[in-house]
Design brief:
By secondary structure, the chain is mainly beta. Helix content is 6%, strand content 41%.
Length: 187
């Protein structure tokens, strides 16, 4: 005799919550700096509220890939702060650096572009790895791509990932014909 068929259960998909405000370019809220604090609001500007309240200078804010937290720079450190409330956390510090210019997590959450002292470094986005960086040589040692350990062909300032995390646009200082040095963007 043949074995009795087993009943299977197919889980039902949970409905995706609908945003209660306008959506622009796939986003239903935005973050901005005002008075040394990070604020978040709906795309129409309503429901604006600060998520930090420490008065410390901040710059270069960005969303974590899961959309649940923001990260920002302050001095030589990168901090995260959850949107749902809670204390800021130090993601990593580069105390050996003269200037931390930029930090951006790739949309897929696998890599981080870090611009320190006009040099771009691409590292795996792993919090324990980032927290282990103590000296400049660690940036080179831990880099997944040796071409960006560091990228030293030009003096760089900022980097921005493509949506698919496969390319990066880089603001560099380069020589421009007949005008001396100039900002240029390379991908």
């Amino acid at each position: 005799t043949a074995p009795a068929p087993q009943a299977t259960h197919t889980p039902e998909a949970s409905p995706t919550p609908k945003p209660d405000g306008p959506v622009i370019g796939g986003a239903d809220r935005f973050a901005y700096l005002a008075g040394n604090e990070i604020w978040v609001s709906k795309m129409d500007g309503s429901d604006a509220a600060p998520i930090t309240q420490d008065g410390v200078a901040k710059n270069d804010i960005g969303w974590t890939p899961d959309g649940q937290s923001l990260y920002y720079l302050s001095g030589q450190c990168v901090y995260t702060v959850p949107l749902a409330g809670g204390e800021r956390q130090i993601l990593t510090c580069f105390n050996f650096a003269e200037k931390l210019q930029a930090f951006e997590i790739s949309p897929d959450g696998n890599q981080a572009a870090i611009n320190i002292d006009n040099q771009l470094h691409i590292l795996p986005y792993d919090v324990s790895l980032l927290r282990s960086i103590a000296v400049r040589e660690d940036l080179t040692r831990l880099a997944g791509c040796k071409d960006f350990a560091p990228y030293a062909r030009y003096r760089s300032e900022y980097a921005h990932w493509s949506r698919d995390s496969r390319q990066i646009a880089l603001m560099i200082w380069g020589a421009a014909h007949d005008i001396g040095s100039a900002d240029t963007v390379h991908t």
